[in-house]
Every structure is written in structure tokens, then in C-alpha cells.
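#lab-general

N.A. 3:47 PM
ok so I finally got the sequence cleaned up, no stray characters, all 289 residues accounted for. can someone with queue access submit it? mine expired

B.Y. 3:52 PM
send it over

N.A. 3:53 PM
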Amino acid sequence: MSEADADETMTPTDGEGSPGRDDAVDSSREGAPARRKPVVVVVEPETPGNVGTIARAMKNFGLDDLKLVNPPELPEDGEAYGFAGHAREDVLPNADEVTFDEVVANYHTVGTTAITGEDDQSHERFPFKTPVELKESLATVDAPTAIVFGREGRGLNNEELSQLDEVCSIPADDDYPVLNLGQAATVLLYELRDLTVGETQLPDTAVTRAPEADVERFHGFFEEFLASTGQREHVREKNALLMRRLLGRAHPTEREIHSLLGTFRKANTKLEHADHLAAKYDEPVYPRE
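B.Y. 4:20 PM
back already:
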């Protein structure tokens, strides 16, 4: 995670000990049970730009409830709003200032850290979950949940981690496992997107495979093409089978198969004409090298 991330955690908290906006239920995913989205908590952030980056990542991945523990000043013409993108319109200006104790008291908390324990002797940092494992775990529970990130330079300390319910860490190169705070938040929230995002900008329609009759017509054209190459029969049979296996895995669309049909139709016509001219003028079918 990040150097401030080295001890990040997830925790939902609302001022006065009430879940507040965390009570918001996500019912946008068709067929999915309604669930409360996590809140994001940043403990004592030092750099306004990181707060803005986290707000932007929240906006990207369907979250809107940001809580800050002892944050720096965040003027509207400052760095945080400059880094926040469209999150400057809602996520960032609506962020709540809370205490760490309020978060612990009101949410199921997940702390984030880059430095983990290697065995069960480190009770604060072990066991830990990866972001993917955390997503699978949270998918089975509907509870007010907070994702807690720590300071840029020191992350969350052992005393803070010991008060949180779970620990999450992003797998990274052992030589340099500490991510920037904003990067860590972006990676983690991306992995949780199935729990927080109802619909993405990506097409949700599956590829429609071309009609089998068109695919078979292509195989017929391809076999004609192979026959025109002068290869021995067993080689042509092998190549025809390889093409059938290739298209079987590729699931070509109707447009793709029609483009291939047109190409091989023209190729076969030209090869047939070349054979006709070779026979007419008593020339070899293939040019001499």
C-alpha cells in the first residue's frame, strides 16, 4: 500500500456514533441483494493531494462517503480539489471529520497496511487478506463497513490496527511493497468494485458468435484455398483442422466471418484464374525460383 498506507485500515464511522450516510444501500446491481456500501476513512492525512486522489478513486468506483480523522485544511482552491476531478462536486465537499474512536465504535473496520506479520505471532498484522480475498469476504456480509487508510509516512500503527476487525494488504514486490497512499486506495477500491459499482462504461453484451452456416462456408473456402496451394493431402487436412480449432476458440462475430469469407472468395477466384492461365499457356502453376 502506501507509506502512509503501510498501516491502512477500512472503517466506517459517522460523527455522533451513527452510521449516517453509510446506511445508504446499494440496490443498483440487477439481481444483487441490496447492501450498504463501505465508507472510506483516512487517518491523519498529511497531503491534501492524497485526499483528493482518494476522493476521485471513490467516485470512480461507486463510493461517496469519505470520513477524515484530523485532516489538513482543504480549501476549495487548493490541491485536494485539484486532484479530486468530479469528486470535487460531491465526495470531497461532503466529507465528514470524525475521530478514530467513532469509527471503531460504529463500523466493521478493515485496516490497510503494507507491512504485514509473517506468522501468528504478530497479532496486529496477521492474518491479513489481499484485496481480492477481502472482496470475497465482504460479499457474504451486509454490515456498516469502513475501509481505513493511514498516514502517508507511517500508516496505521500497531495500537490502531489492534482495534480494527480485519487487515488488508496489497501484494507488491518484496523489494518495495509500499505504495503511495492514493495509489493504494485506488487499487483496493478497484478490487472491491463488484460490491460498489452497479454498471460500468464497458459493454455488458457478450460476443455473438457468427451463424454456424457462415462459419462452415468459411471452412469450405479455406479448404479450396489449401487445395490451390499444391500441398500434399495430409498437410492440407492438418491445416484445415488447425483452422477449425482456431476459429472454435476465437468465436468470430458475424462481421469478422463475413470479412474472411470475402477475402478467401477473392483469393480462390484469383488462384483459379491463375491456374487457367497456366494451363492455357503451358506454364507451371507456381513460378520457378
